[in-house]
Design a protein that fits this description.
67 residues; mainly alpha; 3 helices; 57% helix; elongated
């Protein structure tokens, strides 16, 4: 049984992004649109210092629950 979960945004390989845009047409939820472009732009800055601090806190919490 899982003790907890941790999620962290991260950069998506530009080749994968372009592949998805070729597969899915504009207007499709996975196709090119301004919101998706912005999401990829924001994701490129992760993991950042805050994400790493959150990961460390999560690991500490899991270890405490195991102990």
């Amino acid at each position: 049984e899982p003790i907890g979960t941790f999620m962290c945004q991260g950069k998506v390989d530009p080749k994968v992004i372009e592949m998805m845009f070729k597969i899915f047409p504009d207007g499709h939820p996975h196709g090119r649109n301004p919101e998706r472009e912005e999401r990829h732009k924001q994701a490129a800055s992760h993991p950042d210092a805050n994400d790493l601090a959150n990961a460390a806190a999560f690991a500490k919490d899991v270890l405490a629950k195991l102990g």
